[in-house]
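Input record, target 12 of the design panel.
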């Protein structure tokens, strides 16, 4: 599947009311992650275009056939959209890999299909949402109905661009809302194809829209717009907090937030197959070069097996081949941007100054590609005061810690501020259950790392890791408000 990235055509346009639009207010540079080549100047959607888009999305919500359509009919159109996306795998997987840090080997086998299947999963919910009849006097009918919010704003990150569009747009649309997506300015090029296919599938004009632009410009205009009915956000904890504060001050818009993490991978000495476990731990920290909110960034290993785990993890890391996303052989993708690369350097060097010890990696691969490729890195002697403990690094960097007994494992697994995901590796069912209950994280994965393929798994965290859930029945319910109706008779 390797390809020439310069052969891939794209549109640097916004998509409003079924049409591609330009806007000349201001622009930002799009720099391709793999080779750090400045590919283009991309327009920020201006305040005027934001106003216009919200207006169209409101009109479409009120007047188009979408929210008034029979739910099964909505589902049929969403299924068609998913089929078209899947059929477009050849092109979509290439533009997604060219545009981001996702490897062509993964976009062509995984991301495009996950995007389509996410849409299908939520399409199936369209006619299965139910309200309730509630206890009331004999001469009263009291019930609730669930209704869409109106215009949903989905703000998405750069690490899984098209998958994240589906995570936000599919449940919102299945519930009958109209949608405006604001993709990350680091990966703005693949969403146009998803939009083209939405029109081909028959989704009415104005129901699915997107606006390109920087977070502090276009993103901020959108968040503060009074016409937005609900905000769904995935990104960093700092930006999530700002969006929540802004939306509270401009209409108390409901938000749900999928934010950062500092997820532990706890490994007991009773695991049956150490190689199998290590390969899961490695996937948890090396996939997408650790640029995933659920990356398992803290290995907490039983003292008896810690050395062996570390040795094997270093070996797997040393076999990762840095390279551009459009080559099949690459297994270590680039760090997304110069800014992110500099951030990794600072977090690690400050921690080393404070006494952390890098036992493997800790520097950049020397390549001719132009991109930033950080070596898989293991760090010991990490304390709670250090930046590599307190902050997400968003690189292939794992802290190593050990424990003697279950209580110590639980104490160390629980991070003071983050609580997104946690992995527990053990063959003892009691330990698995005990830790699942005592670790304060939104998702616990036993003998596993990563979102399961089943889309029913509610994804989201606690504490600084977020509010609310994507996916599953919780995920679809984020896109409805529930109205109580009281009818004396
Ligand atoms: P990163 O810095 O890694 O891009 P962010 O959490 O800042 O992570 O970005 C995630 C998404 O949030 C992106 O689409 C970005 O443009 C958007 N964003 C950033 N700041 C704001 C803001 N103040 N208001 C709205 N959206 C924002």
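The sequence produced for target 12 reads:
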């Amino acid at each position: 599947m390797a390809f020439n990235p310069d052969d891939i055509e794209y549109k640097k346009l916004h998509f409003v009311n079924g049409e591609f639009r330009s806007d000349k207010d201001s622009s930002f540079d799009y720099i391709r992650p793999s080779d750090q080549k400045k590919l283009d100047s991309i327009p920020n959607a201006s305040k005027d275009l934001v106003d216009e888009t919200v207006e169209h999305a409101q009109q479409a919500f009120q007047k188009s056939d979408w929210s008034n359509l029979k739910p099964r009919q909505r589902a049929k159109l969403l299924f068609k959209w998913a089929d078209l996306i899947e059929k477009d795998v050849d092109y979509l997987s290439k533009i997604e890999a060219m545009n981001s840090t996702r490897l062509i080997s993964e976009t062509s086998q995984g991301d495009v299909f996950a995007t389509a299947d996410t849409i299908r999963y939520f399409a199936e919910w369209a006619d299965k949402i139910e309200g309730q009849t509630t206890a009331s006097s004999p001469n009263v009918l009291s019930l609730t109905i669930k209704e869409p919010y109106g215009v949903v704003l989905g703000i998405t990150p750069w690490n899984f661009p098209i998958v994240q569009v589906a995570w936000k747009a599919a449940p919102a649309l299945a519930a009958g809302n109209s949608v405006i997506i604001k993709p990350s300015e680091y990966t703005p090029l693949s969403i146009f194809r998803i939009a083209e296919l939405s029109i081909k599938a028959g989704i009415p004009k104005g129901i699915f829209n997107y606006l390109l632009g920087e977070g502090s410009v276009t993103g901020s205009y959108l968040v503060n717009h009074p016409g937005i009915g609900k905000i769904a956000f995935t990104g960093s904890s700092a930006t999530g907090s700002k969006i929540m504060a802004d939306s509270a001050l401009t209409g108390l818009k409901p938000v749900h937030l999928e934010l950062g993490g500092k997820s532990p991978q706890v490994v007991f000495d009773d695991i049956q197959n150490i190689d199998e476990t290590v390969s899961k731990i490695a996937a948890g920290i090396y996939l997408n070069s650790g640029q995933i909110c659920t990356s398992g960034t803290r290995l907490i290993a039983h003292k008896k097996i810690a050395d062996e785990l570390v040795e094997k993890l270093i070996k797997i890391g040393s076999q990762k081949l840095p390279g551009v996303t459009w080559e099949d052989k690459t297994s270590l993708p680039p760090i997304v941007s110069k800014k992110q690369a500099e951030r990794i350097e600072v977090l690690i060097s400050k921690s080393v100054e404070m006494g952390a010890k890098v036992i493997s990696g800790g520097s950049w691969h020397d390549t001719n590609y132009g991109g930033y490729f950080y070596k898989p890195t293991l760090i010991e002697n990490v304390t709670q005061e250090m930046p590599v403990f307190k902050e997400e690094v968003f690189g292939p960097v794992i802290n190593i810690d050990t424990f003697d007994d279950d209580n110590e494992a639980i104490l160390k697994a629980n991070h003071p501020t983050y609580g997104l995901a946690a992995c527990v590796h053990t063959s003892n069912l009691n330990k698995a259950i005990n830790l699942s209950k005592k670790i304060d994280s939104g998702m616990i994965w036993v003998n596993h790392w990563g979102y399961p393929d089943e889309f029913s798994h509610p994804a989201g965290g606690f504490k600084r890791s977020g509010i609310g859930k994507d996916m599953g029945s919780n995920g679809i319910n984020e896109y409805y408000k529930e109205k109580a109706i009281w009818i004396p008779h």
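The CA atoms of residues 263 and 343 lie 19 Å apart.
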